[in-house]
Predict the structure of NAD(+)--protein-arginine ADP-ribosyltransferase.
Amino acid sequence: MDELESYSLAEDEDKWITINGSHVKIDENGDVVAGAEGKINSNKNEKKSAGEKLSANEKSAISSYSGDNFLKINSDLRKGKDEDPDVARIDSAIGKGSLEGGTLYRGMSREDAKKLFPGGDIKKGMVVSDPAFLSTSKEKKIAGMFSIGGVMLQIETNKGDKGLDVTGLSSNKHEDETLLPRNAKMEVIGVHPPKSPGHPVTIKVRYISEEKRPAMDGITESLAFDRASVRTIDANGRLQISRTNISKANVNGYYGREIPRSEELGLEPNKLYRLWRHPDELRKAAKTFNNIPVLSKHIPDFPTDPPNEFRVGVTHSNAEFDGTYLTVGMSIWDNSAIAGIESGEQRELSASYKYVADMTPGVTPDGEPYDGVMRDIFGNHEALVPDGRAGPDVLVADSLPPELNHMRKHKAEAIRATLKPLLAQDADLEAEVRKALLALDEAEKKD
């Protein structure tokens, strides 16, 4: 059958159900009329999976997921809930794996396919993703059991793409299962209609692994909403913020793994490096922060793959650098985002931008040493985030890495309590807390 540019899943569909793991077609009387071939036998030449690399908890989570737990976990993930401890364990397990390359298959009903392809409309070039984990098989016949009368995804992967062969840990070893991460992105590269009634629509997709997505080559910098800024609600109910701080010329610490081209630069992943956002670089970058999206979460925003579901506003066209701060106005369209800002629950902005790391060390005019300078800064988006690194005027320099977000809060509280009575009233307490944390980190590394 010829390849199509697009395809729309029909509303009037054959009725298929699952019996003992096989998809079967039923007539109006409920009698099975096709597809009762039964399960495929287990693969006797079972390959070793990546289980040897996993912790006991990760293995248990994978095994449970491959049984019945996948229903609950994936249902929760599609509702935006990821509190189940097994989610983090599966995330970690998949993060330790990589694919050998080649084709993976996933069979699904048309109703499930409509959730992946909004409205059931499939077009070449479109990029789709599922908030849930994606179970696939290396065996087309296995996926075929789940795609009779439905949809067959034919997923093209490359060596090194993110994913985990869970065959050795699965409760259903005959499925020869490979698990792809949640929110795995796929680009449609071909659409083939059913060859005959009962056959699936075949959709060829290219897996866009996390490792292969367009690199932000940047950083995310969190700032407090400026309470002194003028805020108004316009006639359409949108929140208009005349101007607020979005960046500051200062020195902040970043782990080597957070810095673009870190391997090429020979940086140690877990070492802290002090980077200076040079005033001249922020001045040059100001216009790139005009008219960029405001998102409800951090995700790179590119025209080829816009995260429309997370866009809640846009910056104005008045970005400027005043010698210390980079500022801009913004419009917020989403009611929940507006409520969070007004209540103070969503009190921080986070700027995301590309930059080039110039790892030439030096000292700022204020006498603060640095390991490198951020050059060629270029804005990508603003985001509403729950936690910044430090600072009341600029709750500064990115959303915290996960380990800092938990471990360092207790240290920061102790340092804050000690320093507060010793500082002048107008002193930047949070900046001093951050410096103390960085010094403590360096001292602990030397020990």
Q: What stands out?
A: Residues 14-49, 211-216, 387-407, 422-428 have pLDDT under 50 and may be disordered. The first helix runs from residue 56 to 78. Residues 218-399 form one domain.
